[in-house]
Amino acid sequence: MIVAKGLEGIIVDNSSICKIDGNAGRLIYRGYDIHDLASSLSFEEVAYLLWNGDLPNHQQLRELNNELVRQRTVPQELKSAIRNLPTSSNALDVLRTAISILGAETPLKKPEMMDAIAISAKIPTINAAFYRIRNGQEPIEPRDDLNHAADYLYMLSGRDPEPVKVEALNKYLILLADHGMNSSTFTARVVASTWADMYSAVVAAICALKGPLHGGAPAPVLKMLQDIGKPERAEEWIRNELKSDRRLMGFGHRVYRTTDPRAEILRGIGEKSAPKDLVELAETVEETGIRILQEYRPQRKLYANVEFYSAVVMHSVGLSPDLFTATFAASRSVGWTANVLEQAANNRLIRPETEYTGPMNRKVVHINAR
Ligand code: ACO
Predict the structure, then answer these.
(1) Which residues contact 281 (CB under 8 A, 6 or more apart)?
(2) How far is the CA of 96 from the centre of ligand 1 (A)?
(3) Per the structure, how many domains does the chain have?
(4) 247 lines ligand 1 (CB under 6 A)
(5) Tens digits of residue pLDDT in 138-154
(6) Does some domain include residue 288?
(7) One domain, residues 31 and 142
(8) Whose CA is nearest to atom 32 of ligand 1?
(9) Does residue 338 share a domain with residue 306?
C-alpha cells in the first residue's frame, strides 16, 4: 500500500471556505482573491466573510463589530491566572492556557458562531495582557472606538497606534486568516469531528500551530535576518545553514510550488512599514535563499513562504518576536473557527488509518522470563 506520508495530496473533505492553487500561487477565500481582500477590506469584513460565506453589508458589519467589541474584555479570573504564570512563559503557551480556561466553563455543546466571535475577539486582549504583565506593566482594557488591529496595538503599548502600523497589521490579519487544511486547521477539524466544543478545537489548533514547521517560524526568521545582519553576508550564512543540514526558516511550503501570494503582499506591506535596511536585507536573503535552495533541492521548488515576510511586518508594527506566533493565532482563529463550524454542520468522525508495519504473532512471555 502506498502511504501518503504527511497526508500530502489527500483530500479529506469538501470545503467552501478556502481554495489554494499551489502551482499558480493563488489563494481564494470564499471565491475572492486574497489580493482583492487585502487591498481594501478590514479584518472584521474578512472575518465575517470567512464565518458566513459572504461579505457583510453595513448593518451586518456594524453588528459584528459591536459583538467583537463587546467580547474583547476578558474576566478578572483569567487575568489573575495569566499573572500567576511564570513571566518566562511562551506567549503562545499562555494563549493556549487562557483559551482552555475560558473553555472550562463552557458546557460541551455544538460549536456556535458566538464561540467563534468570542474567541477571536479575546485573543489580542490575552496576548497584550501577558505581554504587559511580563514587562512589569498593568494590562490595558480594550477600547470600543478602535478596530481589531488598532485595539491590539493600543493594548500592547497604551498609545494611539500609528495609522501605517494599523494598516499593516490589518492586512497581516487578513492574509493569515485561513489557509485550507494546514496542520492547525486540520487539528481543529479533527477535534470538532468528535463532537467536542469550539474551545477544545481551538486549544488543539494552538498546539499544532506552535512548531516551527508551521506557525513557529517567524521568530526564527527574524533571528536569521538579525544574525545575517548585512545583505553581503546572506550567501555565506545560508550556505553554512544548509551545509549543517538545517532548514532555512521561512522557505518552502507543502502546497505552493511558486511564490506564496501572501509573502508577495507582505513584502509590499513591509516596504511601506518596515525600516529600509531591514527590507533590503530581507529581499536579498529571499533572493539568495531561493537561488541556493534551487541548487540544493533542484527537484523541489522552494520559495519564501508567508512566515518570511510575516516576521518583517510583525517586527515593523512593533510586536516582539515572542508574540509572533500568538499574533498568527489572533488571525488564524477566524479560519479555525470557520472550519470548525463547517465541520460541525456536516460532520463525520475523522479517523484515518496507518499501514501496520510492526511484528505479528508474538507470544506473551511471563515478566520473569523476559
Ligand atoms: N530549507 C531547507 N530544505 C528544505 C526546506 C527549507 N526551508 N523546506 C523543504 N526543504 C527540503 C527538505 O529538507 C526535503 O529535502 P529532502 O527531500 O532532500 O529530504 C524537501 O525539501 C522536501 O521537504 P518536506 O519536509 O517533505 O516538505 P514539506 O512539504 O513536508 O514541508 C515545510 C513544508 C514544513 C514548510 C518545509 O518547507 C519547511 O520545513 N520549511 C521551513 C520552516 C517554515 O518555514 N515553516 C513555515 C511554513 S508556512 C506556515 O505553516 C504558515
Answers:
(1) 225, 228, 229, 230, 231, 234
(2) 26
(3) 2
(4) yes
(5) 999 999 999 999 999 99
(6) yes
(7) yes
(8) 253
(9) no
- Domain co-membership, 152 together with 251: no
Question: Residue 246 burial by CB count (10 A; 0-12/13-18/19+): exposed, middle or buried?
Answer: exposed
Distance from Cα 248 to the centre of ligand 1, integer Å: 8
Identify the residue whose C-alpha is closest to ligand 1 atom 13. 247
- The reply to whether 274 and 137 lie within a common domain is no
pLDDT-based confidence at residue 105 (cuts at 50, 70, 90): confident
Model confidence pLDDT, tens digit, residues 317-344 = 999 999 999 999 999 999 999 999 999 9
Catalytic residue among 179, 253, 286, 315: 253
297 lines ligand 1 (CB under 6 A): yes
Closest to 341 measured CA to CA, from 127, 152, 120, 169: 120
239 and 158 in one domain? no
How much distance in Å is there from the Cα of 250 to the middle of ligand 1? 9
CATH code of the domain in which 109 resides:
1.10.580.10
Judge if the beta carbon of residue 254 lies within 6 A of ligand 1. Answer: yes
Atom of ligand 1 nearest to the CA of 300: 21
For residue 249, the enclosing domain spans: 218-316
Same domain, 90 and 77: yes
Q: What is the pLDDT of residue 23?
A: 95
Residue recorded with cell 523476559: 370
Grid cell digits, residue 319: 510586536
Q: Are residues 161 and 254 in the same domain?
A: no
Does the beta carbon of 305 sit less than 6 angstroms from any atom of ligand 1?
Answer: yes
Q: Classify 352 as helix, strand or coil.
A: coil
Q: Is the dihedral of CA 132, 117, 343, 46 positive or negative?
A: negative
pTM to 2 decimal places: 0.97
Active-site residue, 307 included: yes
| CB 186 near ligand 1, within 6 Å | no
Residues 201 and 270 in one domain: no
